[in-house]
Design brief:
It is a single chain. The protein has 3 helices and no strands. It is an all-alpha fold. The two termini are 41 Å apart.
Length: 91
């Protein structure tokens, strides 16, 4: 590990950072395109199986509600931590 961080290897430090905004956009666009392709390829199966669409919609709804619930908790958590930090710095 120490060898990767030596002064001779300058590109290793760059990989410690998160993705750039451009690479994140490219990744998101690729995932959306893959999702559309997957839906198009599975449309024949969804049309022939009676409850397939209901199953997919149920899984999507559960996922959306769960992610929304997590966002509310995360937002509440970040707000309360900011309040605690500002209160402790005021003293």
């Amino acid at each position: 590990m120490a060898r990767a961080r030596s002064s001779r290897c300058t590109s290793a430090a760059r990989f410690d950072e998160g993705p750039t905004p451009i690479s994140a956009l490219i990744h998101a666009a690729t995932m959306v395109t893959a999702g559309h392709l997957h839906v198009a390829r599975m449309s024949a199966a969804v049309r022939t199986v009676r409850h397939a669409l209901s199953f997919v919609m149920t899984i999507g709804a559960i996922t959306a509600l769960f992610m929304g619930f997590l966002r509310v908790i995360q937002k509440t958590s970040s707000v309360s931590s900011r309040i605690r930090r500002s209160a402790s710095s005021a003293t």
